[in-house]
Amino acid sequence: MQIVANSTSLRMASRTCVRQRAFTLIEMIAVVVVLGIVAAGSIPAFDAIRSAQHAGCAADLERIIITARARAMATATPTGITLSRDGRHITIVELPQDGELRTVQDLFQTPMPAIDLAGSWGGNTVSRFVNGDGTNRGRTIWFNHRAEPQTRDDDGADPTAFMRDALYTLANGDVVRVRRITGAVDRR
Q: Can you tell me the distance from the alpha carbon of 31 to that of 27, in angstroms, rounded to the nearest whole number?
């Protein structure tokens, strides 16, 4: 009899060991609801990050234009900001005494690379450009030694004073403006 009792207790013990506890439907629904709440809460955070990137792009573009304007005053050399055709890159250029247009050089006399707006600021680009003559030709805004904005030919010759404010409109709708008379730069 004791052998039979031992075999029965062994069968019962094996059933309890084999039986595994699984998640119930209620537990699964609760997990899905919690994940949904977490996901819904994180979407505004991603929007805030994107918004900060776009604001950063406008601020960076404004800073680059102000830097070129200050450089023109400091060096008494016409200095410009050239926008690439695709609106992704900004290059600071100058027109030294020899009259040959060149990219601004750093302290080590190395040409400064183009600034990649799209790569630096989450894909944001300049979607629309209006120069101080009311067109999008040239795609370069120039500053003279008095920080006055100008348009020029592609080779940097024939300076002409702005007739209107120049506008850089970013893909997100932010606008960086260069004032026609003073050359002051602002965002709106």
A: 6
- Cα separation of the two ends of the chain: 94
Shortest CA distance to 151 belongs to which of 129, 128, 169, 133?
A: 133
User: Is the CATH code 1.10.10 the one for domain 56-187?
Assistant: no
Question: CB–CB of 180/173 below 8 Å?
Answer: no
Least Cα distance to 130 among 79, 87, 95, 99 occurs for 87
DSSP state of 172: T
Assign 63 to helix, strand or coil.
helix
| 99 residue type, one letter | G
Q: Which amino acid belongs to residue 64?
A: I
Where do runs of H (alpha helix) occur along the chain? 2-18, 25-75, 117-120
DSSP state of 182: T
Is the pTM for the entire model greater than 0.90? no
Strand, helix or coil for residue 14: helix
Residue range 171-180, pLDDT digits in tens: 889 999 999 9
- List the structure tokens of 61: 């573009």
Q: What is the pLDDT of residues 107-153, one digit of tens each?
A: 888 898 999 988 888 788 999 999 999 988 778 999 999 999 999 98
Q: Show Cβ contacts of residue 166 under 8 Å, excluding neighbours closer than 6 positions.
A: 129, 130, 131, 132, 141, 149, 177, 178, 180
Of the candidates 164, 162, 167, 133, the one whose C-alpha atom is nearest the C-alpha of residue 148 is 162
